[in-house]
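Is magnesium ion placement plausible here? Inputs below.
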Amino acid sequence: MAEVRINSVSKLFGEVKAVDNFNAVIRDGEFVSILGPSGCGKTTMLRMIAGFEKPSLGEIYIGEQLVSSAAKSLFVPPEKRNIGMVFQSYAVWPHMTVFDNVAYPLKIKGYSKNDIKSKTDKALELVHLDGYAARIPSQLSGGQQQRVALARALVSEPKLLLLDEPLSNLDAKLRESMRFEIKDLQKKLKITVIYVTHDQGEAMAMSDRIVVMNKGVIQQIGTPTDVYETPANRIIADFIGLVNFLPGEIKDGMATIPGLGLSLAAPEVPAGAATVAIRPENITIGRAGGRLSGTLVHKFYLGDAVDWRVEAGGFILRVIDKGMEHDDYRLGDTVSLDIKKYLVFPGQP
Ligand SMILES: Nc1ncnc2c1ncn2[C@@H]1O[C@H](COP(=O)(O)OP(=O)(O)OP(=O)(O)O)[C@@H](O)[C@H]1O
Ligand SMILES: [Mg+2]
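Reply from A.M.:
I modeled the complex. Tokens:
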């Protein structure tokens, strides 16, 4: 069982509150990402789960075991938590062979030579590095070194795997293929994974649920669809995916955007200043029949889509057109825009 329960955990470094009242339950076998901008407390939270950092407040359970409690001054050291961890700088030892790197945790634990051999071979096979055992890291590509770190984290057959931005040093193509490999491994081994990243695409593609953090505080916990389609606030709408923010005014349950001549139903939002958020892919471009009129001012051809900037009522709207049916559209053309979906948040952008 590797359910992880984090109850009201905070971490202070002097005056800095790196993690502020973190509450989450990560279910057995779940893949959960902690996502947020640089410095928001992701690594600190992961290190507290692993036992490399002591919480200033709160409790952490792994399965039924209480591993950290500030109130009870209880702290189980990392080597007693049965966790595999890949660090942000994946830290393979340069002077050791691939085999010795991966076997290291088993040696520390005093396994027999035979067990070390069979378990290490198995871990190398899992990450497709069988045949590389005798090499040293400098004879490997970045992706292969990354897999050494992954094999080392898996060699003790942990029920919980903690990964801190494990793919950030890889190029875009390799990053994509490693995403699938890590997901496959998780399914095959039926382990719980907590995955730290600042890359929203990565979190969206891999996770059952995402914990979005900002400045040490959880902003939302939800499925990738939840956080994308119904972000809890403007910070999340801005951080996950692309978005146009427009200043609006709520009156009688309607959001109007002065200058744009647009009125949108927003019955849930209190009267006063508001922010209308529209994702670029939720605006359609046509010749006529839309709710807004605009002028095409920039065109960025992306291969599988066109990324337009459209001037409308003094605003520049970003519109991503994946239909590609607009070859005959030219800069300076007047176009008609429609809005398929939008969100309204209280307060000015
Ligand atoms: N040992 C430390 N002593 C003092 N402050 C620290 C320490 N470790 C982290 N911090 C601070 O705590 C905050 C959170 O850091 P953390 O490393 O958890 O961020 P992060 O979300 O992992 O960022 P990144 O995406 O850049 O890795 C930062 O303001 C950081 O400067
Ligand atoms: Mg970090």
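Short version: The chain has a mean pLDDT of 93.
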